[in-house]
Amino acid sequence: MSIMDHNGGSVIAMVGKDCVAIAADMRLGNQALGISSNFQRVFPVTDRIFVGLPGLASDVATLHERFRYRVNMYTIKEGREIEPETFAHLVSSTLYEHRFGPYFIEPVMAGISKTPTGKTKPFIAATDLIGCLNFAKDFVVAGTASTKLYGVAEGLWEPDLEPEDLFETISQTMLNAVDRDAFSGWGAVVHVITKDKVITRALKGRMD
């Protein structure tokens, strides 16, 4: 049994047309023993950036506070809001600092970045537990149901999905994948991020 599987949980981020979505299940467990069905794994970083933290529950709380502190320090020093690409490198360097005694977390990031011309574009990325970045143009996954999420997302994802279609796609991907994983599930939460707003919805899942 890997320590990464100890508390269970899975996260997926997906790109649409001028929007991104990030979803996580709600289960917290001690291996096969269920502890909570309302565990938060996805956190807002700014109005346009969210980070998902699947892995060991104690490290979820630790890293969330560490990222919050570092983002606040960046905002104070730079006098501007952090961009998704910059935040991804901040996450990577934070994890790499602890590579000899790593946090057992594989972060997934989603956000809307501003281009130099003033336009916006969707951004997603993920890292492993020592901070190796993985940028993608379709979707990234992490957690105990990651292999199932890959399989379902490959079949359902299409380029240039509108926000509502992206919500439906990521929701179906998450619910169908976690149904095949004993350590994930018990409902999910989905955040769809556009340049104007963030739409958050809770999904009901199987509780058995």
From TrEMBL:
Q: Name one GO biological process term.
A: proteasome-mediated ubiquitin-dependent protein catabolic process
**Gene3D superfamilies, A to Z:** Glutamine Phosphoribosylpyrophosphate, subunit 1, domain 1
Q: Can the keyword Nucleus be found in this entry's annotation?
A: yes
How the protein assembles, per its UniProt entry? Component of the proteasome complex. The 26S proteasome consists of a 20S proteasome core and two 19S regulatory subunits. The 20S proteasome core is composed of 28 subunits that are arranged in four stacked rings, resulting in a barrel-shaped structure. The two end rings are each formed by seven alpha subunits, and the two central rings are each formed by seven beta subunits. The catalytic chamber with the active sites is on the inside of the barrel.
Sorted alphabetically, which keywords does the UniProt record give? Cytoplasm, Nucleus, Proteasome
Among Pfam families, the record links this protein to: Proteasome
Its Gene Ontology cellular component terms are: cytoplasm; nucleus; proteasome core complex, beta-subunit complex
Its subcellular locations are: Cytoplasm; Nucleus
Q: What is this protein called?
A: Proteasome subunit beta
Family to which the UniProt record says this protein belongs: Belongs to the peptidase T1B family.
What is the recorded function of this protein according to its Swiss-Prot or TrEMBL entry? Component of the proteasome, a multicatalytic proteinase complex which is characterized by its ability to cleave peptides with Arg, Phe, Tyr, Leu, and Glu adjacent to the leaving group at neutral or slightly basic pH. The proteasome has an ATP-dependent proteolytic activity.
Q: Which organism is it from?
A: Coprinellus micaceus
Keyword presence, Cytoplasm: yes
PROSITE patterns, per the entry: PROTEASOME_BETA_1, PROTEASOME_BETA_2
Query: SUPFAM superfamilies per the record?
Result: N-terminal nucleophile aminohydrolases (Ntn hydrolases)
Q: List residues traversing the bilayer.
A: none
